[in-house]
Amino acid sequence: MKATPQVLLKDLRGSIDNIDAALIYMLAERFRCTQAVGVLKATHGLPPADPAREQEQIARLRRLAQEANLDPDFAEKFLNFVVREVIRHHEQIAKDGVKTDQ
Question: What are the Chorismate mutase domain coordinates in residue numbering (predicted)?
Answer without folding.
Answer: 3-94
